[in-house]
Amino acid sequence: MDTFQQKVRTRIIVLTVLAVVVALIYTGFMLYRSELPILNSFTKGFHQGIFFGLELVILGFLVQNIKGSRSEAALKKMHIEENDERFSLIIQKTASMTCLVMFAALGVATVIAGFLNAAVFFSLLGALLFMVILFYAMWMYFARRN
């Protein structure tokens, strides 16, 4: 259990640093906004939402880990939840099916975009190729690892 407690402490440190870095990046962009290209209000709102949403997710994980590290019972419960094989299998199957659906949807969207707009077509094609290359790279990595 000591190794898991150390793992949680390390996770708390990493999440704290990540929260501070994200906040500093957002603050830097806001301080130098006048030097950046002029954006419409939708894009500005989207950027704000992404940064604040990311910060909330990081803080949520940080609070969860801090609460878990406070008591031995909470730490043990957290350890059991993280090492539950059923949950891992469900996540693995969900990720596998999501990947297949995303390949299919992105492929169909790329074909449709080819008839409508060249810029969108090449953007979707680039995203699809990136996903395929990443998929096969991970496949080869895990095949060699096992």
Describe the structure concisely.
This protein has 146 residues and is an all-alpha fold.
Determine the number of helices (DSSP H or I, runs of at least 4 residues): 5
Strand content: under 5%
Low-pLDDT residue intervals, each spanning 5 or more residues? none
| Outline type | flat
Category from helices, strands and their pairing = mainly alpha
Q: What's the helix-strand series?
A: HHHHH
Distance between the terminal alpha carbons, to the nearest Å? 27 Å
Residues in helices, as a percent range:
over 70%
Got a strand count? 0
The count of domains is 2
Largest sheet: none
The pLDDT mean sits at 91
Radius of gyration: 21 Å
Account of the 3D structure:
This protein is mainly α. It folds into 2 domains: 2-83; 87-145. 90% of the residues lie in helices and 0% in strands. The chain contains 5 helices and no strands. The protein has helices spanning 2-31, 41-70, 72-82, 85-116, 118-145. It starts with a helix and ends with a helix. The model has no long low-confidence stretch (mean pLDDT 91).
